[in-house]
Design brief:
Helix content is 35%, strand content 22%. Strand 2 and strand 3 form a beta hairpin. The longest helix is centred in the N-terminal third of the chain and has 18 residues. The chain contains 13 helices and 15 strands. It has 372 residues and is α/β, with parallel strands linked by helices. The chain starts with a strand and ends with a strand. The strands form 4 sheets. Strands 5-6-7-8-9-10-11 form a 7-stranded parallel sheet. A 4-stranded antiparallel sheet has the order 3-2-1-15, with helices on both faces. The radius of gyration is 20 Å and the shape is globular. It folds into 2 domains: 133 residues, Enolase-like, domain 1 (2-Layer Sandwich); 223 residues, TIM Barrel. The chain binds magnesium ion. The site of magnesium ion has 7 residues, from loops.
């Protein structure tokens, strides 16, 4: 298929509330929306690098620059026959997984449309028409507010809950949640905020029977070894997020026994091609995966739901109804719960979502356009 057009939009989406994690207090989501055209079809994809290079070394402006200057020019006008073909043409670029993902993801949606099938069918997810999703809560102003919100999520039927965990909002918070909800399935996400010197804190967490501890330690050069050391000291499964930036990192993590669970964010690992490979490899080694989120719009959220149909995504994903993070989601149709703690997958070729044209105009910071 000849790639006839590529449009890259850097957009700034206002959040419905201030999202607080161990990185920052966030008022906006910066994201890249990519429109790819070819074979008489067009499709939208999304890759969501954060604005501040704190979650990863990549950040919105750099990712936008890399796609515009070094990647899209090598894809536009080319006959691309597979995702691997596309990836091979930009394989000379090191790192920059969010940039790689921006094109890989748009290609998968476009190819699914060309083949006349929903994206999840193209990805190999079979006929699954719905996937389970969880509820997430960042750091709150008080424990009472958190407990009320968790009760609300339980009442809505969410099958599991994820809680942000940072110094000052840690053991006491988990103790309060566990004593109020003895049977709740939940886990904590540390966003890389701790070191092995905090091993005692994580040992104490064992008594609360968490589903996992997500990215307890820094994602630096010692990451896989340090997480392996921590995993030996505690019962609770360690889940890697920030550390997993590619398939090869997962291969190393498996060899070193650094984790028992892997969070796959399609943009962080370089796209849908890598996401498929990672979940399959983890499946061979008895390591369950789940879908993480980067506060994507309904476009990225819908693509995450399609990916979640693959067999080794066994823990409910971070895929949210549009109204959770946004007063007005740029992606339409918005994502809604189709039942308690679940969303439906696409019933049309590719995905049904596209940006609202007025909101796209209003919230675009920069736009690059390529035509064959
Ligand atoms: Mg995380």
């Amino acid at each position: 298929m000849k790639i006839e057009g590529i449009d890259i939009y850097w957009v700034k989406l206002p959040l419905a509330f201030v999202w607080k994690t161990s990185y920052a207090d966030q008022h906006f989501t910066d994201t890249l929306l990519v429109r790819m055209e070819g074979g008489g079809h067009s499709a939208w994809g999304e890759s969501c690098p954060v604005f501040i290079p704190a979650y990863s070394a990549e950040h919105t402006i750099a990712t936008f620059h890399t796609v515009r200057e070094h990647m899209a020019p090598r894809i536009i006008g080319q006959e691309i026959e597979s995702a691997q073909d596309l990836l091979d043409r930009i394989s000379f670029i090191k790192g920059n997984q969010f940039a790689r993902a921006a094109l890989d993801i748009a290609w998968w949606v476009l190819d699914a449309k060309r083949r006349g099938m929903p994206l999840h069918v193209a990805l190999g997810g079979g006929k699954r028409d719905r996937v389970p999703v969880g509820a997430d809560f960042g750091v709150q102003d008080s424990l009472d507010i958190l407990l009320q919100k968790i009760q609300g999520a339980i009442d809505q039927g969410f099958p599991r809950i994820k809680l942000k965990f940072r110094p000052g909002w840690d053991l006491d918070m988990v103790a309060a949640v566990r004593s109020t909800f003895p049977n709740l399935t939940f886990h904590v996400d540390c966003n890389a905020a701790y070191t092995l010197a905090d091993a005692d804190l994580f040992r104490k967490l064992d008594r609360y029977h968490l589903a996992m501890i997500e990215q307890p330690l820094a994602d630096d050069g010692m990451s896989l070894i340090n997480h392996a050391d921590l995993q030996k000291m505690i019962e609770t499964p360690v889940c890697l997020d920030e550390s997993v930036q590619s398939l090869s990192v997962v291969q190393a993590a498996i060899r070193l026994r650094s984790c028992k669970v892997v969070n796959i964010k399609m943009a962080r690992v370089g796209g849908l091609t890598a996401s498929r490979e990672i979940q399959a490899l983890c499946g061979e080694h008895g390591i369950p995966c789940w879908i993480g989120g980067m506060l994507e719009s309904a476009i990225g959220g819908a693509i995450c739901a399609e990916l979640a149909t693959l067999p080794n995504f066994t823990y409910p994903g971070d895929i949210f109804p549009s109204t959770y993070f946004y007063k007005n989601d740029i992606g339409k149709p918005e994502i809604v719960l189709s039942g308690p703690g679940e969303v439906t997958t696409s019933q049309v070729p590719g995905i049904p979502q596209a940006p609202d044209p007025d909101l796209l105009k209003q919230w675009t910071v920069e736009h690059a356009s390529f035509r064959a």
